[in-house]
Fold:
Amino acid sequence: MFTTDITEEVLARQQIKEGEERFRATFEQAAVGIAHVSLNGGFLRINRQFCEIAGYSHEELSGLTFQDITYPDDLEADLDQMQSLLDGKENTYSMEKRYLRKGGQQVWINLTVSILRDDTGRPMYFVSVIEDITPRKRAEEALRESEGKFRNLVEQSPLSIQILNIDGQIIQVNEAWKKLWGISEEDLEDVLGKYNVLEDEEARKLGIIPLIEKAFRGEVVLLPEFQYDASNTMENLEIGYVAAKKRWVQARLYPIRNSNGKIVNVVHIEEDITERKQAEDKVQNYQQRLKALASQLTIAEERERRRIAADLHDHVGQSLALARMQLATAIKSTDDSSIADLCGEVSENLLEAIRDTKNLIFELSSPSMNEIGLGAALSEWLEENIEKKHGLHVEFIDDGNKRLLDDDVRSLLYRNVRELLTNVIKHGQANTVSVRLDNSSDSIRITVQDDGVGCDVQEKMEKANPYDSFGLFSIQERMTDLGGQMEILSEPGKGCTVILTVPVGNGEKKKGSEVQGSEFKG
Structure:
């Protein structure tokens, strides 16, 4: 009996079987698609992942070739690469291509192909490994679309846009930027090569470099409106350019960060506001002309008031007083009682006319202000028109310092104080009012204070009916015209204090009446 030891053979077969099982498991469970492809393109062996990527079942792919499922536009390049493998020019190749899935949907793959040969070097079949890269391709396409939209937005924007690198150099501009600064396409490369926003001397003169630097440190920056002279910049850069412009702009800077939060660019957006500034200047000049005209009209009105008041005082008032004196003489010289009585009645009527004329003179202007001064004129008006006529307790305080005032300034201050006191009578519901006149080395100050109902100053000046606050507005405008100011201090239920201040240089003159007056307490 003969026996043969087959232990080694059994072990070898077992190892081969285990290897084949490992290969099948690896082949089937691989995360990528794997296919053995015949030399004519037929699928000899495919794994599950290949079926899922290609969109066909195992049985369906067994009856197809790779040519059948390749997107037509990608087939020629794939065939050329395969021929290079067959000719021995290459051992492997990789490419990105598209498959057409069963429903006609495109799927992008990354294909790697190698060729397997027998011991004689004869080609047997191709080994193809595919990876689904559709999500990446879609992301790339979305990025391209986004970049295209961004480019269109930048190019078509009416706002001037610069994209700067972190060193302050321009890497991209749009047409609006070139148009704003008058830079031609021929000169653009020279300008971009030499210009650096962080070294801009014109911006440094304007004082905006520290704000620009903030954007490069990560802040969103809105620059104040400024007028930029691009011709100076071209000269500083030694660029022989004559069409650069001087424009008013409003600029904003935005830092751009990458996914790690690092600043990679700064976007500099400029809006041309030159036409708006020119329109604003025209409006402002027109307003100034209107204010000057209004001021002239006010002064002319005050002068006419003074003239009429003086005429009434010097002519009408004196004529009435003289007529009354003559009637008194006539009464004494007649023995006829009826004539005496009649003359007495006429004298009383003349006395009433004198009083009315005096009141009218005070309403127009104080004719004696030139002689007795602003302080005395205010004191006299307080006594006659506030205390006697309206029954308010009044107090006038003069610091006694003397200062010469221009006639127009004196008249406007007198009118302002009277209007303030008229407001107190109409709306203040006060029991006591005081007026204080102070003369310092640099200003004249008049303080009008009452113990009335007070008010919300902001609401009074801004939200109230314009007709109600027009008097205060007029006073404020007159004070502005004089180079002075009006300050109102008040709260509901706590009375009101108004302070009128005029700089000394705006009120003094070489000849004129003095700001003086006696203290009067009613």
